[in-house]
């Protein structure tokens, strides 16, 4: 069995000293396991809306306590507009079912403005945010969400 080098030991002890006691406690397996799973799903093309919502449903089946936010912009907002439907029917019932399970839907106001649509064009289950891409960045950098793109 080889022994660790002195420089490896020094580096390891320096790294552990650099972390505050709170940061060290947060790194324990129990603390990591106790942290809420937070995921942002990015939809910028409504042609994948059904797939994205199925992914979210499957995600919630595996992790019922996960906090999930679906952020849309560009062509991705289309399924969250009033009366939106595809060949399988209206999107609203599936969105409403996910909303009841705690999923949040967010729509980019920049996209709405660019298409001359008001906030009222969006179904009531969705929230309008100033910028879809900025919302994704904020959720990742400030709130610790992980990013998924269906």
Report on the architecture of this protein:
With 150 residues, the protein is of the alpha/beta class. The strands form two sheets. The chain has a five-stranded parallel β-sheet, sandwiched between helices. The chain has a two-stranded antiparallel sheet with strand order 3-4. The chain is globular, with a radius of gyration of 21 Å. It starts with 5 loop residues before the first helix and ends with a strand.
Brief digest:
The protein is built from 7 helices and 7 strands. Strand 3 and strand 4 form a beta hairpin.
Write the layout of secondary structure elements.
Layout: H1 6-18, H2 21-26, H3 29-34, E1 38-45, H4 49-62, E2 67-75, E3 85-86, E4 89-90, H5 92-100, E5 104-108, H6 109-114, E6 126-129, H7 132-143, E7 146-148
Parallel strand pairs: 1-2, 1-7, 2-5, 5-6
Antiparallel strand pairs: 3-4
Class from secondary-structure proportions: alpha/beta
Q: How many E strands?
A: 7
Mean pLDDT: 87
CATH class of the largest domain: Alpha Beta
What would you call the shape? Answer: globular
The second-level CATH architecture of the largest domain is 3-Layer(aba) Sandwich
Number of domains: 2
Features:
22% strand; 150 residues; 7 strands; alpha/beta; Hypothetical Protein Ychn, Chain: A; single chain; two-stranded antiparallel ribbon
